[in-house]
């Protein structure tokens, strides 16, 4: 069943859907478990039914101009660090959730990369790569003549990523096990720096931005997908339990030293770091229960309400009520879920 489900959503990819259909067996097992636990899911969409992303937000800030990345030599120096868990965890279920999240977002990521000029031979650095889903996609684009460096501090995510690159034969990926905030981390001379959903979790977003800027050669481009406003995650008709949950998620990230609405802090700092913003684009979905996009916030709600109970930010009874309200919304054909607002930023190193 899951195989069908994944194949069904293959049209989300922009031409190359290989990474969707070639998920590692361990990921598939986790996804299966996760899906089995989602009693509220509306239905499994079959391969014969096309799935589309309906609620894209039109044309915004499309990059115009030459999209050829200058080729430059990349260098990396990094200290080793021990693992530090991040607020959402690094367990198998989170690896599976990140896989689903990546499938939903992959077309938008590929579009941003294309507009930033990623191509055969590019040198790419992935900041906070997680289990390496985007890392592997970029390696397939740049080819063996290019170079991909992925920086991640979780050895558990990195172990998963290492198995993936071995299985997919992407030997030109280089992993750096490091905290992005660690003294001595130094990456330089890349064409493209990719950073997605990381700035909200680091102790110093300005330092992260500094490192992203320093990683690029002149003319290289930073591509960021980070949250601009997490509180846009709302249900229509309104669901007070969802709105309350979203508020608590934001509190939990702040308690862990992060900031959900991080773009407002990053954007004004770009020029100081020698980054000229060439494109900004809001990314938000109005998902209906049968849309694949719906599964992204839905999967987060399941795993994270459990986590909020564990850390004492939510009562078990409230988590149960949230899930039952959400199940109701998922069965309401007129329900529309607005997702957290992400801002895509493409900036060029001067
Ligand atoms: C939400 S996940 C996103 C993963 C990946 N960028 C993606 O888009 O699928 C956030 C990632 O940032 C990593 N991370 C958070 N803080 C970090 C830090 N200080 N140093 C290195 N990695 C960090 C976490 O371990 C996790 O893999």
Please sum up the structure shown.
38% of the residues lie in helices and 20% in strands. The chain has 350 residues and is α/β, with parallel strands linked by helices.
Architecture overview:
With 350 residues, the chain is of the alpha/beta class. It is 38% helix and 20% strand. It starts with a helix and ends with a strand. The longest helix has 25 residues, at 92-116. The site of S-adenosylmethionine (SAM) has 20 residues, from helix 4 and helix 5.
Note the main attributes of this structure.
7-stranded mixed beta sheet, Rossmann fold, 11 helices, 20% strand, binds S-adenosylmethionine, alpha/beta, globular, 350 residues, 3-stranded antiparallel beta sheet, disordered N terminus, 12 strands
């Amino acid at each position: 069943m899951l195989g069908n489900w994944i194949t069904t959503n293959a049209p989300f990819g922009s031409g190359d859907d290989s990474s969707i259909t070639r998920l590692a067996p361990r990921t598939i097992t986790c996804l299966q478990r996760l899906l089995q636990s989602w009693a509220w899911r509306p239905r499994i969409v079959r391969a014969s039914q096309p799935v589309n992303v309906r609620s894209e937000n039109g044309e915004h800030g499309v990059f115009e101009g030459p999209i050829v990345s200058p080729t430059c030599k990349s260098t990396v120096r990094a200290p080793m660090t021990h693992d530090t868990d991040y607020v959402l965890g690094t367990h198998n279920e989170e690896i599976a959730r990140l896989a689903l999240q990546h499938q939903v977002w992959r077309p938008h990521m590929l579009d941003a990369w294309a507009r930033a000029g990623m191509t055969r031979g590019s040198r790419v650095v992935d900041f906070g790569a997680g289990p390496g889903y985007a890392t592997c996609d970029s390696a397939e684009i740049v080819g063996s003549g290019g170079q991909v460096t992925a920086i991640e501090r979780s050895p558990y995510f990195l172990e998963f990523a290492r198995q993936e690159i071995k299985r997919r034969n992407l030997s030109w990926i280089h992993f750096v096990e490091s905290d992005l905030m660690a003294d001595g981390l130094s990456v330089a001379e890349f064409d493209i720096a990719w950073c997605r959903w990381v700035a909200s979790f680091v102790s110093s977003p300005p330092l992260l931005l500094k490192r992203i800027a320093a990683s690029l050669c002149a003319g290289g481009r930073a591509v960021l997908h980070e949250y601009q406003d997490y509180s846009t995650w709302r249900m229509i008709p309104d669901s007070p339990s969802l709105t309350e949950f979203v508020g608590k998620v934001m509190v939990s990230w702040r308690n862990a030293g992060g900031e959900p609405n991080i773009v407002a802090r990053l954007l004004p700092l770009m020029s100081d770091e020698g980054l000229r913003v060439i494109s900004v684009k809001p990314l938000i979905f109005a998902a209906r229960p049968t849309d694949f996009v719906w599964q992204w916030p839905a999967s987060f709600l399941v795993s994270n309400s459990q986590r909020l109970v564990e850390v004492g930010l939510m009562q078990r009874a409230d988590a149960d009520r949230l899930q039952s309200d959400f199940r109701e919304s998922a069965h309401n054909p007129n329900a529309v879920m607005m997702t957290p607002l992400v801002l895509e930023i493409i900036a060029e190193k001067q």
